[in-house]
TrEMBL record:
<dbReference type="Pfam" id="PF01014">
    <property type="entry name" value="Uricase"/>
</dbReference>
<dbReference type="InterPro" id="IPR002042">
    <property type="entry name" value="Uricase"/>
</dbReference>
<dbReference type="GO" id="GO:0005777">
    <property type="term" value="C:peroxisome"/>
</dbReference>
<protein>
    <recommendedName>
        <fullName>factor independent urate hydroxylase</fullName>
        <ecNumber>1.7.3.3</ecNumber>
    </recommendedName>
</protein>
<dbReference type="GO" id="GO:0006145">
    <property type="term" value="P:purine nucleobase catabolic process"/>
</dbReference>
<comment type="similarity">
    <text>Belongs to the uricase family.</text>
</comment>
<keyword id="KW-0659">Purine metabolism</keyword>
<dbReference type="GO" id="GO:0004846">
    <property type="term" value="F:urate oxidase activity"/>
</dbReference>
<comment type="pathway">
    <text>Purine metabolism; urate degradation; (S)-allantoin from urate: step 1/3.</text>
</comment>
<dbReference type="GO" id="GO:0019628">
    <property type="term" value="P:urate catabolic process"/>
</dbReference>
<keyword id="KW-0560">Oxidoreductase</keyword>
Length: 65
């Protein structure tokens, strides 16, 4: 996302992001009794821990040449 902003707008020199730290764990819904259901890591359960925010920044490299 930040790279797309820097590539699209030459006047912007840096982008800072602050995002929620969300976690999802895979849930295996298949069972021995139900061989029809195949588990392909495609069902996820949201969790409330850990939580908080993740911060990232991306800056444009300016050549001094």
């Amino acid at each position: 996302m930040a790279k797309a902003v820097l590539n699209s707008f030459s006047d912007i020199s840096s982008v800072e992001l602050k995002l929620p730290n969300l976690h999802f764990i895979p849930v295996n819904i298949s069972s021995k009794d139900n061989a029809i259901v195949k588990f392909n890591d495609d069902v996820y359960l949201p969790t409330d821990e850990p939580h908080g925010t993740i911060e990232a920044s991306l800056s444009r490299f300016w050549s001094k040449m």
